[in-house]
Specification:
The complex is a heterodimer of chains A (224) and B (240). Chain A has 224 residues and is an all-alpha fold. In chain A, 84% of the residues lie in helices and 0% in strands. Chain A contains 9 helices and no strands.
Chain lengths: 224, 240
């Protein structure tokens, strides 16, 4: 039980920092929104094309924002050598991982709501199959946050951390990008039945990423 | 011993070249002479998979405390480097063959897409290796990164295959495989795979030895620097 309590403690710490510093709210979420606008410029604000590509563009915007959220999650540990504090706190590595990943996931959920609203308004999308959309978003976001957090600590404290994390994270999360896009497409096309295999894939990915992170985080935090 | 192995490798590659260029027939439905690219494309792909398999195995051996040794980390790095080169070659040769045979450089086929993902996953791994840290620190980070990369490949393959089946049928590789099972073409392909595997072995060995020398040099230089420092400022003798 203390495992989960520790995780909540770490998540609470990260979210409290975000609430006070407002970096997630005032930088990362606007970044997601501007990416959505840039895609519209790239496709020459062609309504039918934007409408068709909306699921993929939505997840591409989320993926880019994940990089910022992960970078932020670990830059707060660099300041004042907070990382050493975390290491000396006696908390289990796995629970620190769960806490940090959960904080990233919660930030991403908020971002997805706002970016999603922007997509609906700007790309002229009619929301359908809400249950599928929510399940997809939950499974995909957990997978993204967990993968991002694993690579965040893997590159933590290294010289080229900021540039290394995107290179490591983006190829690793291609299954999420693909699955979430297909699932959203099926839901928005009014055939939610086609989405479930993708939700299963996303769930399997999330379970694997969370398991790998819980096991590997402790040793990785120790070493750096 | 290494010289002999290199000589054998060169001979094997020579035999492959002769067979691939002059003995095997051109194929009208496979881009005429362009079909000869298959004797490069298939072995490079095989070597790439083999290399990443070796990297994963060496990383695992490093992570297990009983078999932990810096040599495994260096082997993993050497093998991944060769693997990335061969993955890049596979993609390039595939594109060169695809243009005359399929009429397109690139197809969003399951195997092509996952191979491209593989390439980027291991580019990231090599970048991680180069960020500089102590041997132990690097070993741990890289071993875990290699295993994650290796586990990600089947998931990607699965997702890309599903994506394909929902979208279009890309069965080019099946038709391709039927062509290869006969006479001189089959022999050439086997010869190519064997000679490229030997080449892989030689390259990894060279790279591994070089990495060991690099490791040794760092340790030697550190010792020399400490010795110089001690000579310049002898440590104060604390009176008893």
């Amino acid at each position: 039980m203390s495992f989960l309590r520790d995780a909540l403690l770490v998540a609470g710490k990260d979210l409290r920092i975000e609430r006070r510093s407002r970096v997630a709210l005032q930088q990362i979420i606007p970044f997601g929104a501007i990416v959505v606008m840039l895609f519209a410029f790239a496709l020459d604000s062609d309504r039918t094309l934007l409408h068709q590509a909306a699921p993929g563009l939505f997840w591409a915007a989320v993926l880019l924002a994940v990089l910022l959220a992960v970078g932020r999650s670990f830059s707060i540990e660099e300041a004042n050598r907070a990382r050493d504090g975390l290491r000396l706190s006696g908390l289990d590595g796995g629970s620190i991982f769960l806490g940090k990943a959960a904080a990233v996931a919660i930030e991403l959920f908020l971002l997805e709501l706002i970016v999603g609203a922007a997509v609906v308004v700007l790309y002229d999308v009619t929301v359908r199959g809400v249950v599928v959309l929510v399940c997809t978003a939950v499974a995909a976001t957990i997978g993204l946050a967990a993968t991002g957090t694993v690579y965040g600590v893997l590159a933590g404290g290294l010289r080229a951390r900021e540039t290394l994390v995107p290179l490591l994270v983006l190829p690793a999360v291609t299954p999420v990008m693909l699955g979430a896009t297909r699932s959203f497409q099926a839901a928005l096309a009014g055939t939610p039945g086609d989405a479930w295999p993708w939700v299963q894939l996303l769930t399997a990915f999330a379970v694997l990423a969370v398991t790998a992170g819980t096991v590997a985080f402790g040793p990785l935090l120790e070493e750096a | 011993m290494k010289r002999l192995f290199l000589a054998l490798t060169v001979v094997a590659i020579g035999v492959t070249v002769v067979f691939a260029l002059w003995v095997t027939p051109p194929r009208p439905n496979q881009g005429f002479d362009a079909v000869r690219l298959i004797y490069l494309h298939v072995p490079t792909a095989w070597v790439a998979y083999l290399a990443f398999g070796v990297t994963a195995l060496a990383s695992l051996l490093w992570l297990v405390p009983r078999t932990r040794d810096t040599a495994w980390d260096l082997l993993a790095g050497a093998s991944a480097e060769v693997g990335v080169v061969f993955t890049g070659l596979t993609l390039m040769l595939g594109a060169l063959w695809g243009k005359p045979a399929w009429g397109t450089w690139w197809e969003w086929d399951a195997r092509l897409t996952t191979t491209a993902i593989l390439f980027f996953l291991y580019l990231g791994y090599l970048a991680l290796r180069r960020t500089g840290a102590t041997a132990d620190e690097r070993g741990k980070r890289c071993a875990i990164a290699a295993l994650i990369a290796f586990a990600d490949v089947p998931i990607s393959y699965l997702s890309v295959t599903w994506w394909q089946t929902l979208h279009q049928q890309g069965t080019v590789f099946n038709a391709d495989r039927r062509v290869l099972i006969n006479g001189s073409m089959a022999f050439t392909l086997v010869a190519a795979v064997v000679s490229f595997t030997m080449l892989y072995g030689y390259l990894v060995l060279e790279r591994f030895e070089l990495a060991q020398l690099e490791e040794g040099r760092e340790a030697r230089e550190l010792e020399r620097a400490i010795a110089e420092r001690v000579r310049a400022e002898p440590p104060e003798v604390v009176p008893a």
